[in-house]
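Something for you to look into today, if you have time. Could you write out one complete protein record for me, on any chain you like? Leave the record below and I will have a look.
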Amino acid sequence: MKQSLYHLRRLLVSHSYEQLLKLLVWALRLRKRNLLVLMFACSCIACGIAFAFWPVPMAALFDFRNLSPIAETDIRSYYGGMLVALGLALAILARSE
């Protein structure tokens, strides 16, 4: 069991690395304006993930303190979801041009 998990993890890491290299090659072939849109898309996705998984520390960056559970859910869903969706939309647009 332990050996099969090791091989599964190794396969997953190698596949992820291969996909990252393909993405890097694709990004290097983009025009400068597409690269700027792609960079903005990546930053939106990263901020959205941060808001979705760590809403309280992210909200504290904007001086929102003592959040109720409803407010945490709202921050997760609105800021996390909308930023990830915006980032994905921008990434798709940058890739289609």
Summary: The two ends are 46 Å apart (CA to CA).
